[in-house]
Amino acid sequence: MAVARALRRLLRVLELEEEQRKNALEAAVGELRRIEQAQAATVEREHRGRALVLSSFRSGEIADRIAGTEETRSALHLGEYLVARRTSAEAIVSERRAELVAKRIERKQTETLVEEAARREAQEQAHRAQSSLDEWYLSKQRRNQAKSNVESAGFRKS
Question: What is the pLDDT of residues 102-154, one digit of tens each?
Fold first, then answer.
């Protein structure tokens, strides 16, 4: 009983740890998605910069050409940074996922141990109950036999 109780407490702790790992994974995946969205926005920003440069060639506006060139350069620079951030975020997601899987395996193993301990406990309980019934029946049988012996001995004396 004490083993099963300790295992149940351990199981509860492991469930909480698994939940924490799951939350950490979700946060890491959320960060990765934000980086991917930023990359998509950066690509769009680069396209707008190039379009501004092209339109400046047609209109002859130097300010638009400079602004478009700077917009493109800025988007490329930000894109390089985001590639590094994405690589880092992907590594973190992979690490968090591995931690979650390891914790889930640990919890499942503990669940198996708890189930086995509960099954063993139930078997022992059933065995004790059966032993108690056997003892009761044997003692009743002995009392009846002793009573019968006393009665039969009493009839012989008469």
Answer: 999 999 999 999 999 889 888 999 999 999 998 999 898 888 888 887 777 76
Q: Is 7 within 8 Å of 117 (Cβ atoms)? A: yes
The distance from CA 37 to its chain's CA centroid, rounded to whole angstroms, is: 27
Token representation of residue 158:
């008469």
Task: Render 75-126 in DSSP notation, one character per residue.
Answer: HHHHHHHHHHHHHHHHHHHHHHHHHHHHHHHHHHHHHHHHHHHHHHHHHHHH
